[in-house]
Amino acid sequence: MKDPVAQDPAGTPQAAAERPFPSLPLRSQQLSARKPTRFAFRPTLDERRAVADALGLIDLAKFTFVGEIQPIGRADFVLTAQLFAEALQPCSVTLAPVPARVEEPVRRRYDADFNPPDAEEAEMVDDETEPLPEVLDIAAIAAEALALALPLYPRASGAELGEAVFAAVGVAPLMDAELKPFAGLAGLAEKLKNPDSGSSSKG
């Protein structure tokens, strides 16, 4: 039986602070304009621990992100991948470990001439479309996809808690489900502020 990240000697706060966040960068200028660029992100144990730390997980026993970047037109690209992960999350009520299994497709479109839509156009724009960056970091994309796919408020068996409502006076409340896209992303964003500190993982 594998020890959870939080209980492993290498998972101490000091070790976590020294553990580099994984990185698998692909420069957009080097992507083929004629055929797909394939990738496979299979992080090591230490790299999985770094992702678990960033997302507030107890353990991340398995984590793979395999796919390709397909050219569209002259300078645009579409990333498609299959995400698979097995994690332990802390119960939002008791902090007991809650198993989570994620297996789902991921799609991102990157447009070289992307212009942010105004308020009226926002609802008509594909929310998976982003500006084409100078570097596509497959590890960061995988971690973000995992953060979005994990349950926002995991519950251990028998744990009960009414749905939380978040609102200031005079403001329409946000329910739990509406906060899901932000789960784990704050810690991930902090880890990605310094991209040069990451290590490379190759499939």
Helix content: 10-25%
Mean pLDDT rating: 79
Proportion in β-strands: 25-35%
Q: What sort of overall outline do the alpha carbons produce when their principal axes are compared?
A: elongated
By DSSP, the count of extended strands is: 11
Task: Return residue spans where pLDDT drops below 50 for at least 5 consecutive residues.
Answer: 1-10, 177-183
Q: How many structural domains does the protein architecture include? A: 1
Strand order of the largest sheet: 3-4-5-6-7
What would you call the structural class? alpha+beta
Order of helices and strands: HEEEHEEEEEHEEHE
State the major sheet.
5 strands, mixed
DSSP summary: helix tally: 4
Radius of gyration computed on alpha carbons: 18 Å
Distance between the ends: 26 Å
